[in-house]
Amino acid sequence: EKGGWDSFMDKEIHEDPAAVQRTLLGRLNRNGDLNLDEVHIDEHDFKAVDKIIVIACGTASYAGMVAKYAIEHWVRIPVEVELAHEFRYRDPILTPRTLVVAISQSGETMDTLMALRHAREQGSKVLAICNTQGASIPRESDAVLYTHAGPEVAVASTKAFVAQITAAYLLGLYLAQVKGAMFRDEIHQVLDSLKHMPAKIQWVIDTQSGTISDAAKRMVDAKSFLFLGRHVGYPVALEGALKLKEIAYTFTEGFAAGELKHGPIALVDDGEPVVFIVPPERGRNVLHAKVISGIEEVRARGAFVIAVAEKGDPDVERYADVVFWRPQCPTLMSPLVDVVPLQLFAMDMAKLKGYDVDKPRNLAKSVTVE
Ligand code: F6R
């Protein structure tokens, strides 16, 4: 039940912190090392993994894209992310050392299920990251790592997304641990940052909701939105664009901010709303300055800039029209917080337009047809 909220989407966004926390729970042993015995893949098989291919659709594929940045950095093996319906009809290069990771909230998405069969037929092991116990995708996989977001009822995926990133990060850190790709202390440090994320997400919900609903009121008549980010901010931009189009029926496009001058800047006109995901670690992350210069470029063409940025970021204070602040956190952790204001913004926009946020037109919660 909705437990006092006006919609399931409202309730589920407010469960983002708990979804991350519950997905971390019980996966560390007494020494603070990761223990993923529950997935029933032999440690030797994990050690042998030399490539990961993530297959998923929609929001789940964006969680996979976020994980690619982290896992390649931590484990130093290539990670590809592919839409399940594309993967299925190609002739992918798979070996017994390729780990295919199928990410799915419902565990029933037909395209993802068919893609995992395609991978298994060719001798690869498939690990499912899934939110639904006993669904078809985990049943047909070699192994499963459950996200413990709790049942997600609203059609638009919210808490499942942050739980999927968390689970994929645990998988990456576990691979780093068994392959000796990182020092034990480094892994513990990352796990520590992960443990701090639920409180940071909560801070966004508690302190930014007012700014977000005011922004939605100001923007409710906008015909289109662009969403831009780089590195892990890129999949967050794609997810923010998807949320807004699917529930508020506003035309949106998300893309990598570096692409601006390769075409999309032509769309920027007076008053065009552009949402930027500004990376944290100003001064240490070279991409921070690049994103800021993207903001300056669109501002010069009259865009209305909405930024998701670190609290007190002086460059953002100078150039953005509206800011959704995030607390300090490492770059790889930022997607877990940055998506939250975008989920709230999409919900507020849809409500202002009078739409049913839980049941957007033309969409189903699990897509069991191809
Ligand atoms: C977007 C959304 C969809 C799903 C996609 C995959 O809000 O809900 O894009 O993410 O249909 O669904 P699952 O994760 O159930 O495989």
Automatic annotation (TrEMBL):
Q: Does the keyword Transcription apply?
A: no
Top enzyme class, one word, equals transferase
The subcellular location is: Cytoplasm
Q: Which reaction does it catalyse?
A: D-fructose 6-phosphate + L-glutamine = D-glucosamine 6-phosphate + L-glutamate
Membrane spanning residue stretches: none
The highest taxon in the source lineage is: Bacteria
Q: Keyword set for this entry?
A: Aminotransferase, Cytoplasm, Glutamine amidotransferase, Repeat, Transferase
One annotated GO biological process: protein N-linked glycosylation
Q: Which residues form a coiled coil?
A: none
Active site per database record:
K365 (for fru-6p isomerization activity)
Which GO cellular component does the record give, naming just one? cytosol
Q: How does it assemble?
A: Homodimer.
Designated name of the protein = Glutamine--fructose-6-phosphate aminotransferase [isomerizing]
Q: Which organism is it from?
A: Bifidobacterium vespertilionis
What are the top taxonomic ranks of the organism?
Answer: Bacteria, Bacillati, Actinomycetota, Actinomycetes, Bifidobacteriales
